[in-house]
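Hi R.,

Here are the chain sequences for the assembly we discussed:
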Amino acid sequence: MTIEDERREQVLGTVRRSLGNMKSDKARRAIVRGRLENHPKGEIPARAQVNHFKQVDLFVEMAGAVDASVDRVKTKADILDAVTEFLRSRNLPQSLIHGDDAYFADLPWGKHKTLEHRRGPAAAKDLVSLAKAHSGVAETGTLMMASGADNPVTLNFLPDVSIVVLETKDITGDYETAWDRLREKFGEREMPRTLNMVTGPSRTADIEQTLLLGAHGPRSVHIIIVGR
Amino acid sequence: MVIRSGKFKANAREALADPQLQRAMSNVGVGFVQKRRMAMDKLPEFDALRDQARDIKNHTFQYLDLYYEEYEKKVREAGGHVHFAPTDGDARDIILDICRNAGAHSVTKGKSMIAEEIAINDHLEENGIKPIETDLGEYIIQLRGEAPSHIIAPAIHLNKDQVEASFREAHTGLDENRNLDEPESLVAEARSMLREAFLNADVGITGANFLIAETGTSVIVTNEGNGDLTQSLPRVHIVITSLEKMVPTLEDATAILRVLARTATGQEMAVYNTFSTGPRREGDPDGPEEYHVVVLDNGRSSMIGTEFQDMLRCIRCGACMNHCPVYQSVGGHAYGWVYPGPMGSVLSPSLIGVDKAGHLPNASTFCGRCEAVCPMRIPLPKMMRHWREREFERHLSPFSVRSGLGFWKFFATRPRLYNFTAAVAMPVLAALAGAKGYLKALPLATGWTHYRNLPAPEGRTFQQQWRDHLAGVDE
Amino acid sequence: MTIPTHQASADKPHVGLFVTCLVDLMRPVIGFATVDLIEKSGCRVSVPEMQTCCGQPAFNSGDRAGTKRLARQVIAAFDEFDYVVAPSGSCAGMLKAHYGELFADEPGMSDTVKSFCDKTFELVSFLVDIRGMTEVAAEFRGKVTYHDSCAGLRELGIQAQPRALLKSVAGLEISEMQDPDVCCGFGGTFCVKYGDISNAIVEKKTANIDASGAEVLLAGDLGCLMNMAGKLSREGRSVEVRHVSEVLAGMTDGPAIGAKRT
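And here is the predicted structure of the full complex:
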């Protein structure tokens, strides 16, 4: 036994001893397996149990309440118009970094020659990022970002401004539905390496409980919702 | 960390006489308390969600060994490592080994109370590795050489001008005449100072609010984004966490997240809830190359099955201390170890021994506000009472308490003697007070009269007067 | 041994008054006000002589065995009554909310203890919730503020009941203080064992009381009232302090708690 194994046995052995009289191992394992396979849903707030149109509206409302800005465009073809307009309105350079997401590959970049765009993970110098959300959860205006080559995790944290594209079809009422969608993509009991639930821009209240935006992560989060 | 819990009374006295601290603490009762209240009011299901959160944890503990087996399997499949640490010393050894193997010189750290519990910073520093706290509050107190005074707001005991002074002292090389009057400028300065640290670190250490058995995932909950930069940029990510953080599924984790931020800061959700599963994968352009989870026990496994098991449900939201009149008065440092407030008064004796932390479960008015706001429905006062019982059984209670109690019990269990004695004593006290109706000082009652007057008794006891009343004697 | 009051009539529910040791020793008028209010609610009242204390000091000091001895004594003394009523949220909370936990390890006691807990109430919640009282006939001129004592509030849910009855008192105006539901720092032996902290807590409370502009402070627990009255008096503040039952029963002729005797 290695020292690692000994330590493991010491901890889990004490857990088993503390649990005392237990049901048969087989029965216990069946209960654990059942829970993990069925991942039962519990109490879900009624707030987001509304039709999809209302869920989209709720998402917009809740994201706004946590200081994210939200723009809505009709189709994917309108995204870059919205991006350049947003950058202009904030006096930001027309330059951004995004991942290898196929979704971005066929945007009409040629139509927006002044918009500089690089692909890859974010570096310290990157001021603005563009990323694609896996889901948006209306309940709290939360974005679910799944990491990978398509959407590097650093895009969500290093740049000052995070622009996130979210399709209306990807908006769910609650977290539970978003987990189901994630399992559809990645498989049962599988996760992307990093799954970020992002609810508004970075903030801190560590100095005299004064709430300030832009602690270490993005100072602003701009969400472009695509589709009606 | 040196344990100073035995000096609680002296610590408290010092804290009460510290005007800076008193000014800073006045933010607690208002900010946190009101924000929580507003978040509650917006979610009608809140109490049902609390019940559910409690049930999830209770279920998990019943099968904790098996959930760990499943969890480990998934972490390994994802290419990560799980290390069990029976003691704080083991955890320090494990982390130092990982850092050494990675050839680490500099380590960035997200906020972690377990890191405080095992005092990892001192250990790394003693071994030539520089730990840099990146949570703003933790960064501030690291500059000042202090310990956190709150589990989610580590620098709550400080005022802005103290932070400014620390920054001016530590951040040499910046314009001395720069304006740091506004908190914004302090936050911006910390942000730019720490960017460098994030990018240069070899290892990033974060805590974990949850471990998820279903997927082998660790979860951190932050607002600043420092935890994410800490774990995404360096080559190695170490998660330091403790045994009770396990939940079965993603649904279970989010069910508890629904109560966590609302209770902690009044937010509907913290800004960043980050779910990490293993190291960087093939094709990933960023993320750590190694992923280690260190699971600290330090006495927790022995709490299972005892009257203190419920304490393991704690999700470190801080609501109990935010609402505690004692914590609000003396701040976190007075408690003398890592965990302050009501949750600390119950947990610390389990982790460091009731002989060292005996004051803590006694320093409560049992007002019950902590239990009333606890999102996990932990019966904190009841468990403090359990510690008092353990102390009493082991004859650890102070002599004055035992003798006073014995004296009182002698009378209370002898109603006739009690009635007789009271009938003699009360008129004497009343006469001592005279017409002014109160006593300014009374031998054996200086604990009371030092700060307040003692209202005088009416004179004759109720039982005496009642007997007269029944006998038809007019008063 | 108990002696029924002269208003006794067999068909009325029979209430045993648990007077509490503090009321017995320090402020009997609360006991008389309590008897009066219970009688007005249509019950007859007796006061068992074999009562002393609910056992809270021992319970909160970790002396479980000592507490049990007292608890048995209390349960036996009140065996014959339909209800047990105490003018204190803290003592009633001990009897109602903690006796069950205390005897959890004695299954043989469970029926006895349960029926005792079920029939035990704090005075004002008994009047409103059990007896359906909605108003009192009392009169009291002045502005009062009400402090929610912790045990009554959080163990027994007493908050709306006293305010409802106080609103019916002729001439009385309620002016809520900031944080009426925050502890006054009494905490039984806490206020002596940790006097410095207790003092810091009660200082905040008296400042809030003063800021409410009320002339009179009311609450349902004598321990808290003595703590706040003692502090108000030491600070030279002129707020008068009384138990809520005194006002509800119209028994406010005598001096307030810790006040001058005339």
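Residues 14-129 of chain C form one domain. Chain C touches chain B through 77 residues (CB under 8 Å).

Let me know if anything looks off.

Best,
T.
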